[in-house]
Write a structure and sequence with these properties.
Order of helices and strands: EHEHEHEHEHEEHEHHHHHH
Distance between the termini: 35 Å
Radius of gyration: 21 Å
Oligomer: single chain
Structural class: alpha/beta
Strand content: 5-15%
Largest sheet: 8 strands, mixed
CATH topology of the largest domain: Rossmann fold
Helix content: 40-55%
Number of domains: 2
Shape: globular
């Protein structure tokens, strides 16, 4: 049985707030402290009882056993060394969608061992405390990176915490994580943003979009509602891998364009059949 800890969550939006709910529910926290730069989010997090109190960062660090950074990845880069400067034996982890840059930022920090890089592979297109989901993270993967660089006790607690809230653990080095995240997550968001912009540019009649949009269109552009403050820094931090997968995506789009332009039905059948192979992986 895991001992309950005082946990500070920096950022009380969708991920941080949903994590707070699960930590309370699974009795992993004796107290949850919120650190929040947005006063409206702070107020809402208290009203919804996601956190027990709101404190400034330094005060929260001083009274906490665990600090979880749940902010955009550019903010993680700024905050992580500052937090490690102030910890003694506390555990520090983050939920960022890119890992290599964060790890590089503190690779020579004397407190590096207290940091456990992790990425719970869950989210929605919504943001803010109001967007929290009660059963978030259940049966989803969490990627934990560069195990050998973290202190054993810190790694084990974060590992057990994610297991306790219903996730399965995938261990991976940071570069591999960023590569695979570009392929299975980041390109999906770029595609969704681009498709939404295409439709909004070409279809000037909003009513027609609303009335004719099918379930397929809605599911494809769902991610286009995601927060730019979160996703723009992800795209820039993971630039090289994203450009690689984006180039391949453009190749595939051009294959479809050429087949349609040349009225090549056999090629269209082939392209769609190739795409159908995804059914073997995602059911």
């Amino acid at each position: 049985m895991m001992n309950r800890k005082i946990i500070a969550i920096v950022g009380t939006g969708l991920i941080g707030g949903s994590l707070a709910l699960r930590l309370h529910e699974k009795k992993l926290a004796s107290k949850i402290i919120g650190v929040e730069s947005d006063p409206l989010h702070a107020k809402k997090a208290m009203e919804m009882e996601l956190v027990d109190e709101i404190l400034p960062l330094e005060a929260a660090i001083s009274v906490s056993d665990v600090i979880i950074l749940s902010v955009p990845v550019d903010a993680i880069i700024q905050l992580l060394p500052l937090v490690l400067n102030r910890v003694n034996r506390q555990i520090v982890t983050d939920v960022g969608s890119t890992k290599w840059h964060a790890i590089q930022t503190v690779k020579d920090h004397p407190g590096r061992g207290r940091y456990v890089p992790a990425h719970p592979m869950w989210g929605t297109e919504y943001s803010g405390p109001e967007a929290v989901v009660k059963d978030a993270f259940e049966n989803k993967a969490v990627v934990m990176c560069n195990k050998e660089e973290s202190d054993e006790d810190a790694w084990q607690w974060v590992h057990d915490m994610y297991k306790k809230i219903g996730m399965h653990i995938v261990e991976m080095d940071a570069r591999s994580h960023d590569l695979h995240a570009a392929y299975v997550s980041h390109i999906s968001h770029i595609t969704s943003f681009a498709l939404a912009n295409t439709v909004l540019q070409k279809e000037k009649e909003e009513k027609a979009i609303f009335e004719l949009a099918s379930a397929g269109f809605e599911s494809t552009v769902r991610l286009a509602k995601s927060n730019p403050q979160m996703w723009a820094p992800i795209f820039l931090q993971n630039k090289n891998y994203i450009l690689d997968v984006l180039d391949e995506h453009l190749v595939q789009l051009n294959r479809f364009r050429e087949a349609i332009e040349n009225e090549n039905e056999a090629m269209l059948h082939q392209l769609i059949s190739e795409a159908n192979l995804i059914k073997k992986i995602i059911r």
